[in-house]
């Protein structure tokens, strides 16, 4: 089957991407789904900083690769053998294809699935296969088992979660990364409860989803921190009680506003200096949760004694510590009840041929969640 897909062949090309053109839309050959796989028509895919970090080289991946990992679509075909899916099903795709059999999956920590992580690093589907090829027969690697910047894709069934057909695709797509990661970090990793004070560093799609999760959890004070004033205004509209323009006095302002530091702090930027500030803005006995992924060469320095003398907790959260088959329906239920207005995160719609310009907007902080409609 012939499809059009956005291929990244070289990381680290300099912005503006409208000029350097790191993503090139190519005609590709898409192989049929194997056992335990699905052929999906991509109906909407979000542009995320995780894609941008591959483009700029701060998160190395095998090249060449069809990017995109936050998506929703329709099942066109199932692979040979029995399947829990059927043509016509609408699905949200998660970026860790949890195998369900390893020790982490069996203990309810699907985000740490070892075969899923190995496949994502190798640029394959969960079973180790490639399904995307150039005209010369060379493989095009899969991004986090999804490669959503393509008209059609083949994915492992373990990457897909069935959703109701009346949920708009461009809204459904956000549940595959922004909502899973942001809301999951609040409710699963940080364990925010009613009355807690919460601070969120970074107001991209994930950070604003975390803010929505804090509101839905009943947090009493919600401090939103970012470098872009327009995002602070949106945060106020979505329920932030205090907004802080990131800078030299941000930590002090948060400490003052929360009586010594917030009880739960979520860092979404993926920068070790911002993470250090998020830790400093956490109160005694509090929890700092980081979902950002800095360049792997970066190191974090914090006052080590504070972990003991102040009973502080610093923890990572990948995929929002979610089990996608459990949490995607749960979060969609909150959305339907009006408690997670994730549609407010949408800031634009683009086509495959406009991706380079769209990533420029994302890099400049001019967009929260743009959605590509292949």
Structural features, described:
This protein has about 375 residues and is of the alpha/beta class. It folds into two domains: about 1-175 and about 340-370, Medium-chain alcohol dehydrogenases, catalytic domain (Quinone Oxidoreductase, Chain A, domain 1, Alpha-Beta Complex), CATH 3.90.180.10; about 180-320, Rossmann fold. Helices cover about 30% and strands about 25% of the residues. The chain has 13 helices and 18 strands. The chain has helices spanning about 15-20, 50-55, 105, 115-120, 170, 180-190, 205-215, 230-240, 250-260, 270-280, 305-310, 325-335, 355-365, and strands spanning about 1-10, 25-30, 35-45, 65, 70-80, 90-95, 130-135, 140, 150-155, 160-165, 195-200, 220-225, 240-245, 260-265, 280-290, 315, 345-350, 370. The strands form three sheets. Strands 3, 5, 6, 9, 10, 17 and 18 form a seven-stranded mixed sheet that branches. It has a six-stranded parallel sheet with strand order 13-12-11-14-15-16, sandwiched between helices. Strand 17 (about 345-350), helix 13 and strand 18 form a beta-alpha-beta unit. Helix 6 packs across helix 7. It is globular and about 60 Å long. The two termini are about 15 Å apart.
């Amino acid at each position: 089957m012939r499809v059009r897909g956005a291929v990244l062949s070289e990381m680290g090309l300099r912005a503006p991407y409208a000029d350097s053109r790191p993503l090139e839309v190519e005609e590709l050959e898409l192989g049929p789904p194997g056992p335990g796989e699905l052929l999906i028509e991509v109906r909407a895919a979000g542009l995320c900083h995780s894609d941008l970090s591959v483009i700029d080289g701060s998160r190395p991946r095998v090249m060449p690769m069809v990017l995109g990992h936050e998506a929703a679509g329709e099942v066109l075909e199932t692979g040979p053998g029995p399947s829990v899916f059927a043509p016509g099903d609408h699905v949200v795709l998660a970026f860790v294809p949890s195998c369900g059999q390893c020790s982490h999956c069996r203990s309810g920590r699907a985000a740490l699935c070892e075969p899923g992580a190995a496949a994502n690093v190798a640029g394959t589907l969960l079973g180790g296969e490639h399904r995307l090829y150039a005209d010369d027969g060379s493989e095009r690697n899969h991004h986090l088992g999804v490669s959503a910047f393509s008209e059609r894709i083949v994915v492992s069934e373990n990457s897909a979660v069935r959703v109701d057909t009346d949920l708009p695709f461009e809204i459904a797509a956000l549940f595959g990364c922004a909502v899973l990661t942001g809301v999951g970090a609040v409710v699963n990793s940080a364990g925010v409860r009613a009355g807690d004070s919460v601070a969120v560093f970074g107001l991209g799609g994930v950070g604003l989803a975390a803010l929505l999760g804090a509101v839905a959890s009943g947090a009493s004070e919600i401090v939103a921190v970012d470098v872009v004033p327009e995002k602070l205004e949106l945060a106020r509209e979505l329920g932030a009680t205090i907004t802080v323009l990131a800078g030299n006095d941000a930590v002090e302002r948060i400490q003052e506003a929360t009586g010594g530091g917030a009880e739960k702090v979520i860092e979404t930027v993926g920068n070790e200096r911002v993470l250090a500030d998020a830790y400093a803005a956490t109160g005694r006995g509090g929890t700092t949760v980081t979902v950002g992924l800095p360049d792997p060469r970066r190191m974090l320095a914090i006052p080590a004694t504070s972990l003991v003398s102040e009973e502080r907790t610093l923890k990572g959260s990948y995929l929002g510590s979610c089990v996608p088959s459990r949490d995607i329906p749960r979060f969609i239920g909150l959305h339907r009840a009006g408690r997670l207005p994730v549609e407010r995160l949408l800031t634009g719609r683009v086509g495959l041929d406009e991706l380079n310009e769209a990533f420029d907007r994302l890099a400049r902080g001019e967009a929260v969640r743009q959605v590509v409609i292949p």
